[in-house]
TrEMBL record:
<protein>
    <submittedName>
        <fullName>Stage III sporulation protein AF</fullName>
    </submittedName>
</protein>
<dbReference type="InterPro" id="IPR014245">
    <property type="entry name" value="Spore_III_AF"/>
</dbReference>
<keyword id="KW-1133">Transmembrane helix</keyword>
<dbReference type="Pfam" id="PF09581">
    <property type="entry name" value="Spore_III_AF"/>
</dbReference>
<feature type="transmembrane region" description="Helical">
    <location>
        <begin position="37"/>
        <end position="57"/>
    </location>
</feature>
<keyword id="KW-0472">Membrane</keyword>
<keyword id="KW-0812">Transmembrane</keyword>
<feature type="transmembrane region" description="Helical">
    <location>
        <begin position="12"/>
        <end position="31"/>
    </location>
</feature>
Length: 197
């Protein structure tokens, strides 16, 4: 019994010396209050350790600690699973948008145009009735391969001021809109086509 008390006092003395050394080594006073709080809690556990061993509370404390740490790990795993699921959904939508853009490019080429840029906007709101459907399509196309590659340069006109007039939709635009409207079940008003002239 005296041996246990001696060991207990020795542990407390060693811990107090260690705390003093750590407190003196800390360069910034901002962290001292947090270190004091933590070391104070550990000191309380050290002081109460003989009482807890007499009352056999060690097992209860171990069980409580294990339970709380298990719950914390479970919460962290839930958070990781949710972030993984969100990343997976994002990759799925991106892949689907790319595939739809590729198919739209083929439709544009069938109408004799060259696709420059195709953007597909999906409904990503899970609470929406239209979740996963196509909301909008933005197409930029050109009449020639050079225009599509960005090599085409319009001729420079000096001294003539031309007002940009409203250009009615060309037959190609109407055909593309009709094809996409039927195939993707999307309103023609949500399909924007810009043809470089």
């Amino acid at each position: 019994m005296i041996e246990q008390i001696y060991q207990w006092v020795k542990n407390i003395a060693f811990y107090l010396i260690l705390i003093t050394a750590v407190m003196n080594v800390l360069p910034n006073n901002n962290y001292k209050k947090y270190v004091k709080l933590f070391t104070g809690m550990v000191l309380v556990l050290l002081v109460l350790s003989p009482i807890t061993s007499l009352l056999k509370l060690n097992r209860t404390m171990d069980f409580t600690f294990m339970t709380s740490s298990f719950e914390q790990e479970l919460n962290e795993l839930d958070d990781q699973a949710e972030s993984f699921e969100n990343a997976q959904k994002s990759r799925l939508f991106t892949g689907y948008e790319e595939e739809v853009a590729k198919e739209i490019g083929e439709v544009v080429e069938q109408d004799g145009l060259y696709p420059v840029d195709i953007q597909v906007v999906m409904e990503e709101d899970e609470s929406s009735e239209d979740y996963g459907s196509i909301r909008q399509i933005h197409i930029t196309a050109a009449y020639s391969q050079k225009q599509a590659e960005g090599i085409y340069i319009e001729p420079v006109r000096i001294g003539t001021e031309e007002k940009e007039e409203y250009q009615p939709e060309s037959m190609e635009e109407i055909n593309i809109k009709n094809d996409l409207e039927r195939f993707y079940n999307i309103s023609a008003s949500n399909i924007n086509i810009s043809i470089q002239r």
